[in-house]
Amino acid sequence: MSINSTIFGQLISFIIFVFLCMKYIWPSFIDLIEKRRKSIADSFSSIEIAKNNLKQSKLEIDNLILNAKSKADIIIDEANKYKISILNSVRSESEIEKNKIINEAYVKIDLKRKLVEEELRKEIINFIILATEKITICSIDINKNIDIVNKIISKL
User: By the 8 A CB rule, do 152 and 127 touch?
Assistant: First the structure.
């Protein structure tokens, strides 16, 4: 065999091998590569969708937080208004109770004053009775009687 026929035989064998590979093996490799490329592309699109969903979720969360804050502010405002109304109610009730207690104290003081006045009247009457007894005992002299009455009045 000569070198040319060997090279020519190898060339024909190689061409047949390449042809058979291209006809039977190459399509399955291409299919695998395409499937892998499609899988990678789908993964990238899924990643983009996930990023968009994440952005959307962040926006929704931010909106929920803002809504919650606004609702909390409304609740706090209502609580403050309720607190003020309760304080005003308690103030008015305590003012009424205070006035009632003060009026009762005035009534008690007035009653005590009247009792003290009555006791003083009784004592004055007793003093007058004693003075008249002394006047009548001492004498019926007008000057002495006036002096005794003046002394008794000065003691009072």
Answer: yes
The residue assigned the tokens 């007008």 is 142
The answer to whether the CB of 67 falls within 8 A of the CB of 61 is no
Cα distances from 21 to residues 28, 36, 59, 79, 113, in angstroms, run 10, 20, 54, 82, 131
pLDDT in tens, 54-77: 999 999 999 999 999 999 999 999
* Alpha carbons 152 and 156: distance in angstroms, whole number: 6
Count Cβ neighbours within 10 Å for each residue of 81-120 and write b for 16 or more, e otherwise: eeeeeeeeeeeeeeeeeeeeeeeeeeeeeeeeeeeeeeee
Which 3 state secondary structure label does DSSP give 139?
coil
Note the pTM of the prediction, 2 decimals.
0.45
Task: Quote the CA–CA distance of 6 and 38 in Å, as a whole number.
Answer: 44
- Cα torsion 38, 41, 42, 48 to 10°: value is -170
- Cβ neighbours, 10 Å, residue 127: 14
> Residue 103 above 90 pLDDT?
yes
